[in-house]
């Protein structure tokens, strides 16, 4: 199988984005660390070369190890043995390969034995790992927890926990969900109690649906303030598995991502360390952790979609019906071309969002060493504003498209796709979770609608529009027409001053904005590389009709009809005589 980095030229294209010079220079402190670490880059070109070499290693491991183990892992899955989760053999081999290559803790500073990578190359690695095995991507991707410890933990906690990722291959988990607190995390009840005698915190309670729950290092959301019932009483804690105070009571049996253990955990006087300040667990620390996780699901979704597309293309080029291979039938080649076009668009949105987050985070990192200049503070604030609304937009658009692409790929396989003879059966099952975990699509719409109502999306759309060359006037005009319709229908909904109506149409409005944004991103990509010309043209034609349909639905919607959706009348549920 081809190297996953080499067979996807888009990675190099996105690494060469102009803003990467700013990101790399800030991340590398103008390359001052080259004097202290012999593996630190000496200039921008050296840094990009390093990223590419590391990503090539990731691509090789994905092709030669992870993807080849995926089917066996899906069949075997993890199990519990002596109160410990034991991975499938293939999962253990996958993690060992990445660990031995030094790819655990990629974005951590070198001081803590990391590679000090920006998020962009790390997210590219995550996309490749997900393409190879979406379930394993969860286990490897939870090294995001190390970033949270670095961002909010004390220096003592950083020195204690962070080197373990690269040095020991430590695994991580974010332990948030409870039986009665799924999406509503402010309802978390797991209790954190401070013992005055030994000056330690202890955790008691149950957590459910915890990905990789029996990890070496866990970040746990718990209620530290007695008598509280909302987010203000929650704090974040580090639990170390070496303390052996948690029972792994159950492993969930799942539709997909079967190699990734999903645990029910019982904390019994489990010693833990407070991260940051009390009461900030949900309102600050978990929100930051969840945003990283949503970016990760965006990468996972693109990786799964790419895997599904490649399986569809391969099958359609080999499968003959009625005297010719099926890729020559319009009904099939339309589906396959639309898959590729959407993946190009989603990947552009993924890496645009990642760049916004990257600039924000590198400035936050710099702030730990020196105050920012006024211009730097303003720039960080602007990118943070974009990151906050683009992240849920990405998660929504990528996960939903991932499911559609996996569905279409299985359809192209016909009856064989429904069997376990081809990888698409597993890929199709793995795709389904992406629009559910780390915040459902419906919750992402609630978060992303702020980008619509505050004008952040529209402002960025205008920014993109100003960068389009004159020779692209036809596609630019079509995007401008879509933007006018988006502005008009958004204002129409806002002017009703009907909060429930805005919520009802939020997903449609967010998707309209997302389609325009991705259209512009592809058009701007084509100005840097003509290989995107086809995707830009086809995608813009495709989504212009989708946006028109959403516009017409909202425009013709009668507010009075909202009541018809609220409850199913009981008489419709009763048998008719």
TrEMBL record:
Start and end residues of each Acyl-CoA oxidase/dehydrogenase middle domain: 173-269
Residue stretches making up the Acyl-CoA dehydrogenase/oxidase N-terminal domain: 52-165
Domain of life from the UniProt record: Bacteria
SUPFAM superfamilies named among the record's database cross-references: Acyl-CoA dehydrogenase C-terminal domain-like (SSF47203), Acyl-CoA dehydrogenase NM domain-like (SSF56645), PG0775 C-terminal domain-like (SSF158494)
Domain Acyl-CoA dehydrogenase/oxidase C-terminal positions: 284-445
Co-factor(s): FAD
Alphabetical UniProt keywords: FAD, Flavoprotein, Oxidoreductase
InterPro entries: Acyl-CoA_dehydrogenase_C, Acyl-CoA_dehydrogenase_C_sf, Acyl-CoA_DH_CS, Acyl-CoA_Oxase/DH_mid-dom, Acyl-CoA_Oxase/DH_mid-dom_sf, AcylCo_DH-like_C, AcylCo_DH/oxidase_C, AcylCoA_DH/ox_N
Family: Belongs to the acyl-CoA dehydrogenase family.
Protein name, per record: Acyl-CoA dehydrogenase family protein
Source organism of this protein record: Lutibacter aestuarii
């Amino acid at each position: 199988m081809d190297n996953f980095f080499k067979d996807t030229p888009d990675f190099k294209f996105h690494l060469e984005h102009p803003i990467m010079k700013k990101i790399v220079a800030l991340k590398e402190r103008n390359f001052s660390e080259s004097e202290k670490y012999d593996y630190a880059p000496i200039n921008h070109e050296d840094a990009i070369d390093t990223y590419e070499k590391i990503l090539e290693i990731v691509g090789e491991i994905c092709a030669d190890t992870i993807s080849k183990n995926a089917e066996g892992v899906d069949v075997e899955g993890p199990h519990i043995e002596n109160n410990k989760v034991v991975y499938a053999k293939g999962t253990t081999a996958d993690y060992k390969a990445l660990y031995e290559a030094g790819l655990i803790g990629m974005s951590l500073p070198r001081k803590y034995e990391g590679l000090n990578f920006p998020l962009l190359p790390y997210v590219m690695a995550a996309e490749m790992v997900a393409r190879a095995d979406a379930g394993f991507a969860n286990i490897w991707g939870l090294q995001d927890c190390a970033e949270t410890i670095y961002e909010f933990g004390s220096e003592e906690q950083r020195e204690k926990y962070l080197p373990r990722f690269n040095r020991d291959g430590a695994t991580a988990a974010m332990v948030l969900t409870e039986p009665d607190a799924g999406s509503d995390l402010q309802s978390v009840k797991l209790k954190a109690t401070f013992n005055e005698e030994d000056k330690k915190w202890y955790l008691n309670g149950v957590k459910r649906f915890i990905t990789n729950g029996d990890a070496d290092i866990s970040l746990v959301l718990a209620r530290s303030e007695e008598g509280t019932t909302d987010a203000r009483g929650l704090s974040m804690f580090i639990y170390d598995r070496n303390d052996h105070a948690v029972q792994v009571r159950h492993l969930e049996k799942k539709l997909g991502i079967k190699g990734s253990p999903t645990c029910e955990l019982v904390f019994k006087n489990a010693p833990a360390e407070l991260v940051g300040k009390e009461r900030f667990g949900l309102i600050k620390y978990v929100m930051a952790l969840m945003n990283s996780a949503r970016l990760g699901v965006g990468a996972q979704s693109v990786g799964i979609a790419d895997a599904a597309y490649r399986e569809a293309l391969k099958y359609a080029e080999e499968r003959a019906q009625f005297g010719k291979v099926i890729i020559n039938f319009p009904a099939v080649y339309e589906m396959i071309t639309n898959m590729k076009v959407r993946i190009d668009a989603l990947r552009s949105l993924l890496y645009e969002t990642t760049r916004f987050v990257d600039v924000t985070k590198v400035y936050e990192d710099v702030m730990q060493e020196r105050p920012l200049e006024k211009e730097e503070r303003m720039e960080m604030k602007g990118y943070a504003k974009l990151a906050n609304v683009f992240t849920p937009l990405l998660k929504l658009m990528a996960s939903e498209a991932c499911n559609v692409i996996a569905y279409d790929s299985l359809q192209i396989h016909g009856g064989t796709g429904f069997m376990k003879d081809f990888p698409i059966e597993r890929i199709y099952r793995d795709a389904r979770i992406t629009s559910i975990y780390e915040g459902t699509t419906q919750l992402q719409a609630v978060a992303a609608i702020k980008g619509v109502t505050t004008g952040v999306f529209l402002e960025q759309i205008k920014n993109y529009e100003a960068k389009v060359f004159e020779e692209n006037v036809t596609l630019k005009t079509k995007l401008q027409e879509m933007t006018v319709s988006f502005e008009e229908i958004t204002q129409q909904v806002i002017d009703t001053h009907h909060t429930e109506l805005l919520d009802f149409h939020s997903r449609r409005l967010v998707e309209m904005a997302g389609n325009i944004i991705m259209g512009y991103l592809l058009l701007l990509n084509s100005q840097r590389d003509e290989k995107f010309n086809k995707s830009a043209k086809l995608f813009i034609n495709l989504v212009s009709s989708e946006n028109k349909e959403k516009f017409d639905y909202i425009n013709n919607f009668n507010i009075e009809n909202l009541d018809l959706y609220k409850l199913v009348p009981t008489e419709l549920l009763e048998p008719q005589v």
